[in-house]
Automatic annotation (TrEMBL):
Pfam families: DFP, Flavoprotein. Its EC number is 4.1.1.36, 6.3.2.5. Pathway: Cofactor biosynthesis; coenzyme A biosynthesis; CoA from (R)-pantothenate: step 3/5; Cofactor biosynthesis; coenzyme A biosynthesis; CoA from (R)-pantothenate: step 2/5. Residues 1-189 are annotated as: Phosphopantothenoylcysteine decarboxylase. NCBIfam families: coaBC_dfp (TIGR00521). It catalyses: N-[(R)-4-phosphopantothenoyl]-L-cysteine + H(+) = (R)-4'-phosphopantetheine + CO2; (R)-4'-phosphopantothenate + L-cysteine + CTP = N-[(R)-4-phosphopantothenoyl]-L-cysteine + CMP + diphosphate + H(+). This is Coenzyme A biosynthesis bifunctional protein CoaBC. GO terms for molecular function: FMN binding; metal ion binding; phosphopantothenate--cysteine ligase activity; phosphopantothenoylcysteine decarboxylase activity. Residues 185-394 form the DNA/pantothenate metabolism flavoprotein C-terminal domain. CTP binds at D278, K288, F322, K336, K340.
Length: 401
């Protein structure tokens, strides 16, 4: 699967270095050409010779040791790679890269790399949770770097928690997936909306819903993985932006409408995963409403239906809506497809356990024009998003859009 793929593995110092040796072995067995750079700390755990034997390539660790005088090693390695993986990545190397520091062979090469960079952290659970580390990870996410999340389990320091380097088999599987997925959306622009909206009542209160943003963020990540220029218009949620995605935060349905309008004209796909409020308070109180004796009532007015608006305006764009239903899922989804002039409606029955709002998994049926209908089993939202998007893009390519 990985024949002729050039993978540059940057190894930083932690006990998980031994797993990096297994990773080189797996990648090489799959046919990849692997080159390894080590930090000084990594060399305290495993000798470069081990990586040299596993990769059948020279191992690099000294910025000033130029093995080939016709090139500058760290620039040459950066240019050579189709994919750069940092595994294990310590808090130190993450912090340096997030702050643009290049003071050794690994970090100078990372700064010079234009190929996608994937970081697989491994550290103590409290280090991984430290606000500074979290800030640096968020910064790197925003810079378009993809993370392979550490798994949970026994850590070398004696703690049990999140911080174990992902298994080499799993990383190899992800690398395989990366290279086998064609960049189906290269040159295309995808706009995704995600999360809830907030409709203010007064300075301290608002109307909202249970959307966590997970499904929409997964759709945006899937679009970016397929090579799309991806714009994520997000209501208030606390998720990190997926790698390679431009995120625009909005608050209300009206804000979301304006942001979508700005991005719509030159977009190719618009995916409306957001749970947009259908109503907002008719009056926005400038000061906190005081409680009074007896009941109170709130007068509501309709918000703009963004999907409906896009359906009336659309030209070449493929318009994909979601539908959160509690009953008669198929009937309501099909009616939304028609009424909103969407190309697809992805319906979830939000009464099903582990599906819909807030969960990490979802179970959906997609409906399209011409009675197209396909159901998916319960899947993690990220995997489901990949399958949904691939299905839509391949169908649309057949329609020659
Ligand atoms: O965010 P999570 O916790 O992961 O949950 C995911 C989800 C359940 C929110 C998601 O899968 C989902 O179903 N999103 C759509 C929810 C919804 O608002 O459905 P709806 O049936 O009310 O609206 C239908 C479509 O019209 C949606 O694409 C919606 O974005 C759009 N709409 C709705 C109202 C409005 N004023 N403007 C809109 O554009």
């Amino acid at each position: 699967m990985l024949a002729n793929r050039r993978i540059l593995l940057c190894v930083s110092g932690g006990i998980a270095v031994y797993k990096a040796v297994a990773l080189v072995s797996k990648l090489s067995q799959a046919g990849a050409d692997v080159k390894v750079i080590m930090t000084e700390s990594a060399r305290q755990f495993v000798r470069p010779l081990t990586f040299q034997v596993m990769s059948r390539n020279d191992v690099f660790y000294d910025t000033f040791d130029e093995k080939d005088s016709s090139v500058i090693a760290h620039i040459d390695l950066a240019d050579w790679a189709d994919l750069v993986i940092v595994a294990p990545a310590t808090a130190n190397v993450i912090g340096k890269l997030a702050n643009g520091i290049g003071d050794d062979m690994v970090t100078t090469t990372l700064l010079a790399a234009t190929a996608p960079i994937w970081i697989a952290p491994a550290m103590n659970v409290h280090m991984y949770d430290h606000p500074a580390v979290k800030r640096n990870i968020q910064q790197l996410h925003d810079d378009g770097i993809r993370f392979i999340e550490p798994s949970e389990g026994f850590l070398a320091c004696g703690y049990v928690g999140k911080g174990r380097l992902e298994e080499p088999e799993k990383i190899t599987e992800l690398v395989n997936g990366f290279f086998s997925r064609e960049m189906l959306l290269k040159g295309k622009k995808v706009v995704v909306t995600a999360g809830p909206t907030r409709e203010r009542i007064d300075p301290v209160r608002f109307l909202t819903n249970f959307s966590s943003g997970k499904m929409g963020y997964a759709m945006a990540q899937a679009a970016a993985e397929l090579g799309a220029e991806t714009i994520l218009i997000s209501g208030p949620v606390s998720l990190p932006a997926p790698s390679g995605v431009k995120r625009i935060f909005v608050e209300s349905a009206e804000d979301m409408l304006q942001a979508v309008k700005t991005e719509f004209a030159d977009s190719n796909f618009v995916i409306k995963t957001a749970a947009v409020a259908d109503y907002r308070p008719k009056t926005l109180h400038g000061q906190k409403m005081k409680k009074q004796d007896g009941d109170a009532s709130l007068e509501l007015e309709r918000t703009a239906d963004i999907l409906h608006y896009l359906g009336t305006e659309k030209g070449k764009q493929v318009l994909i809506g979601f539908a959160a239903e509690t009953n008669d899922v198929s009937r309501y989804a099909k009616s939304k497809l028609e009424r909103k002039n969407a190309d697809y409606i992805i319906a979830n029955d939000v009464t099903e356990s582990q599906a819909g709002f807030e969960s990490d998994t979802n179970k959906v049926t997609i409906y399209g024009k011409g009675d197209f209908e396909q159901s998916f089993e319960l899947l993690p939202k990220q995997e489901l998003a990949r399958q949904l998007l691939k299905l839509i893009v391949e169908r649309e390519m057949r329609n020659d859009r």
